[in-house]
Design a protein that fits this description.
549 residues, alpha/beta, 31% strand, 11 helices
């Protein structure tokens, strides 16, 4: 490592509560932060997808939030605060000399190509303590659990039992880009997990039961079993199929994993006719992914009046519908599918979907109608499941009535910070942050879960969303959803509970912090034009409010 100390700007250019991106040796970039009289410096880019952190949100308690997808880092150490960041950022020494801010750094670590810092693992292997964690599932929650366990010093064995045939991947890119090579999506290779994290990854494994009395996980039809001290249930969801005639035909696809992506990629070719059942996120992301492939037709069937209506509201849904229609998509809304009809020439294949007595011709069909918690095998294992198959947990994500068993991600009904009511939320960020919290708890530092849900979606422009708006009773719109440039505030019982936006970064990142801190403006203030970006949560004067919450 070759360190250099460089004067990067005048001290007067960085005021209290501000951050600023500066050049380092011409090609490198560093972000400076001034909090409570102290200057900090880090590398400049989010390790998730490379967003410029200086365009994000800074808080007085030392957090910098990515402007795109909610990843968060400590400005003091560079450590990960929130998923979906897969790696920490670099932290550099900074100070003031003769009115100039000086930064000391290895110039190579200021390059975007080196934006990720290897995690500071307090443990990388097994101490022989006899402790062991078994994780069932191989998704976002599992990856972040492994990272968090080792970051916080857990020294026991970690074993992952995953149905998938590869290490944990960035699943969000499947529906957004139809990537078919799992190696391009892996957060860590199997070798890295084994060597650097002391984790045994068992892929292609189907768990059939859990014996909680003897603390055994049984898999592969009873042929094998493994004991555990602590068990983490992280199975995620199983795509639903509508109970209608023809739903099991060969070219009727659900979408969840790499194999699904391969199947859709292979058939979504020029001249083909595509029908999507379901007008919410997975189906509509696939519409965007194939829209430029020259398909003969794309038809979307939905039960609501507008796509995305239950989550985003009528006005935003209508705006997004207009965009998709401009790209040649035809919607059939406020309706239900009657049946899927087989091909006369090959009865194993679907030839069309019947809606309101009309047959929509199809060469392939996507059934994007949600997922069910993948918990079927737990029914015979003494677990009490909710009506939808989910599992209720406490604030530490521990399964009620079970000894050292946790549930995370899509399957977990967990208590919400503000209301205490339990909800099950199928967001990538939620699963990742569940993993980070439960890893810290198991490592010996109990971490109640209190993160604001965040998600994003590619819909012509990037849609951002934070909060819990499922039960909204009013929506306040700034901007024009029809022009794909807006901010929407979702109100429930007189309080703003969620925010969505397009082309208004970093509004949603700021909103997520205001919701975290309990500082979100009232609906009345927002109707009068209050701008979230004008609210101070980063200066010394704001610190008492920020740190007291």
């Amino acid at each position: 490592m070759s360190l250099k100390t460089i004067a990067v700007c005048d001290e007067s250019e960085l005021q209290d509560g501000q951050m600023k991106q500066v050049d380092f040796e011409g090609v490198g970039k560093v972000v400076l932060y001034r909090l409570n009289g102290t200057i900090h410096a880090t590398s400049a880019f989010c390790t998730h997808y490379g967003a410029p952190l200086a365009k994000g949100v800074l808080t007085a308690d030392g957090r910098v939030v990515c402007p795109w997808h909610g990843a968060c880092f400590s400005v003091c150490t560079g450590d990960i605060e929130d998923a979906p960041a897969p790696a920490a950022i670099h932290s550099f020494k900074a100070g003031v000399v003769d009115g100039k801010i000086n930064v000391t750094a290895d110039p190579s670590l200021t390059l975007k190509s080196n934006m990720s810092r290897s995690p500071k693992l307090l443990s990388t292997g097994v101490s022989g303590s006899g402790k062991s964690v078994v994780v069932i599932g191989g998704g976002s929650a599992t990856f972040h659990t492994i990272e968090s366990l080792r970051e916080h010093g857990y020294t026991g064995n970690i074993t992952v039992l995953s149905q998938e045939k590869h290490p944990p991947i960035d699943r969000t890119k499947l529906s957004k880009a139809l990537i078919t090579d799992s190696s391009k999506l892996e957060w860590r290779t199997a070798a890295d997990l084994k060597i650097k994290y002391g984790t045994t990854l068992r892929t292609g494994v189907t768990v059939t039961s859990v014996d909680t009395s003897s603390k055994l996980v049984v898999f592969d039809g009873g042929k094998e079993s493994i004991s555990y001290e602590t068990l983490i249930l992280a199975m995620g969801g199983t795509p639903r199929r509508l109970p209608i005639s023809g739903s099991d035909l060969e070219n009727v696809y659900t979408f969840r994993n790499v194999e699904d992506s391969k199947r859709v990629d292979a058939v979504a070719q020029e001249g083909k006719r595509m029908v999507v059942i379901g007008s919410s996120f997975i189906g509509m992301e696939l519409v965007v992914a194939v829209a430029k492939r020259g398909l003969a037709s794309i038809d979307v069937i939905g039960m609501e009046e507008y796509p995305f209506q239950s989550v985003l509201g009528k006005e935003v849904g209508h705006g997004l519908q207009k965009y998709h229609e401009s790209q040649g998509v035809k919607f059939h809304l406020g309706t239900q599918v009657e049946k899927i009809i087989p091909s006369e020439s090959d009865p194993s294949l679907a030839a069309g979907v019947v809606v309101n007595g009309q047959t929509l011709p199809a060469d392939f069909i996507i059934m994007g109608v949600g997922v069910a918690p993948a918990t079927e095998f737990l029914k015979q294992s003494g677990f009490q499941l909710e009506k939808d198959g989910g599992i209720k947990v406490d604030q530490y994500l521990k399964v009620q009535g079970q000894d050292n068993v946790y549930a995370v991600g899509d399957i977990a009904w967990y208590p919400q910070q503000q209301t205490g009511e339990s909800r099950r939320i199928e967001h990538w960020n939620v699963a990742g942050n569940h993993g980070r919290a439960v890893g810290k708890t198991i490592a010996g530092d109990p971490q109640p879960f209190a993160k604001v849900p965040v998600f994003w979606s590619a819909q012509g422009q990037q849609l951002r969303y934070c909060g819990l708006g499922a039960d909204y009773d009013d929506v306040i719109i700034h901007g024009n959803p029809g022009e794909m440039k807006f901010i929407a505030y979702y109100v429930y019982r007189g309080e703003v509970v969620a925010v969505s936006s397009m082309q208004n970064d970093p509004v949603v990142s700021k909103a997520s912090e205001l919701l975290r801190l309990g500082l979100m403006p009232s609906p009345a203030e927002l109707r009068e034009g209050k701008n979230l970006l004008s609210i101070d949560i980063s200066t010394t004067s704001s610190k008492p409010r920020v740190e007291s919450l």
